[in-house]
Design brief:
- This protein is an alpha+beta fold.
- It has 3 domains: 120 residues, Immunoglobulins (Immunoglobulin-like); 78 residues, Tetratricopeptide repeat domain (Serine Threonine Protein Phosphatase 5, Tetratricopeptide repeat, Alpha Horseshoe), CATH 1.25.40.10; 74 residues, Tetratricopeptide repeat domain (Serine Threonine Protein Phosphatase 5, Tetratricopeptide repeat), CATH 1.25.40.10.
- Helix content is 45%, strand content 19%.
- It contains 9 helices and 8 strands.
- The strands form 2 sheets. Strands 1-8-2-5 form a 4-stranded mixed beta sheet, with no helix packed on it. A 4-stranded antiparallel beta sheet has the order 4-3-6-7, with no helix packed on it.
Length: 304
Amino acid sequence: MYLANTIKYLSVICLISVILVMPRDISANATERENQRCDSSCGSAMEQPKAELEGTVLNIDKKPIPKAEIQLKHEESGQIFYSKSNKKGVFSSSLIPSGNYTLTVKKKGYKSYTGELQLNPDIIKRLTIILAKEETSQQKLEKEAIASFEKGVKLTKENRPDEAIQAFHKAIELKQDFVEAYVNLGILLLQQQKYDEAEKALLKALELKPEESKPKVILADINFEKAKTLIKKNKTDEALEKLRQAYSFRPDHAYVNFLLGYLYSKKEMKDEAIKHFEAFLQLEPNAPQVEEVKRLLESLKQKK
């Protein structure tokens, strides 16, 4: 599988609790606190033991995110406390009722975070929130394409080629430059002897990534198979053209060299025949055809 570079899609929250007995007049020592407001009457809930929250909002590169909107909802009373992160990404909420809270962090251009936490009396809860960038429409399509590609791989391993082919087609529809999907599609189509369709997929992969070797290997096999069929039909000129294409993709294909040598010898093209027969012997010195090729070579060299 290919897939250089992974995408981080999830917001991550790390909570670090630090037990600290707080002095009664803690507000006098608070620094860089944002103004807070409560959207309902504080009532008796504000008379509960107090807690404190301190946090930092960062991006995936661990750089601060300023002006992130922080919302703390006290589940027992329904009170909501608001604050914003400063230029260092730091925010705090002090002298708030202890208990269970729903924390929401929002910043335009980033995925929002929502999570549960508990604030205990006379304890400072410290946390770090990491927000990931919102996905663009292109990123969403690529994510779907990758999921479809992985499904195709899974179906291939389960020996369900028809369904796998559909999955690879979908991946290509979503991401038209998905080289790996074209290659895997070509392999499956070749296995089903759908040579023209396989060749089309692999040529597209090669067009997108000319340095990729696997499409060339498979394209050589496709043209080799086509050449064998044409030879059986006595269409030697067409077969020779397919073999030339196969050789252009993979000059180290032993049996492409063998058939090229054979057809060139039939056409009395001695130099070309000798070249490919010698290549075959070098590539496959223990092949069953070795003795036959040696006799043909000797004969061709005597006629020169």
